[in-house]
Design a protein that fits this description.
Jelly Rolls; 4 helices; single chain; alpha+beta; 8 strands; about 150 residues
Length: about 150
């Protein structure tokens, strides 16, 4: 399992992240099985435990490949945070096992430690900021914005 040694939420301590992953249900998908479609309401973060998924977005009738994510990578965090429908479709690229971090799992851990949610959301915000920074650098070259 790739997630045992890889911490992906920077503001949670390793024990908190381990507890979150241990509490998250595991779902398995066959090759080419849809994990979720684009434009569905879904409040969960999916962590690739084993295998890989491909992320695609329908645009003007064509499916545009966005990314292939492997063990230790995650997706679904934007809809988890803001509650908007999913912006892409995700499909298992091979037999894949995902950990599903849903609001019920987070709520349960927050009841035990009220500060947990703040650290979790701060971690997600840091990850989204880094992804936006990388996207901006690719789109606008290496210009420094400060």
């Amino acid at each position: 399992m790739a997630t045992a040694t890889t911490q992906f939420l920077p503001f949670l301590d390793p024990a908190e992240e381990s507890a979150l992953l241990a509490a998250a249900p595991v779902k398995s998908f066959a090759r080419d099985q849809v994990v979720f479609e684009q434009n569905v309401s879904l409040r969960a973060i999916f962590l690739v435990d084993d295998g890989s998924v491909r992320v695609e977005r329908q645009d003007r009738g064509a499916m545009i490949p966005i990314a292939v994510l492997g063990a230790g990578e995650f997706f679904g965090e934007m809809s988890f945070v803001d509650g908007t429908p999913t912006s892409a479709r995700v499909i298992a690229d091979e037999p894949t096992r995902l950990r599903v971090i849903d609001t019920a799992t987070v709520d349960s851990l927050t009841k035990a430690d009220p500060g947990f949610a703040a650290r979790l959301y701060r971690s997600i915000a840091a990850i989204l900021a880094e992804r936006l920074r990388l996207t901006s650098m690719r789109a606008y070259g290496d210009q420094s914005w400060g």
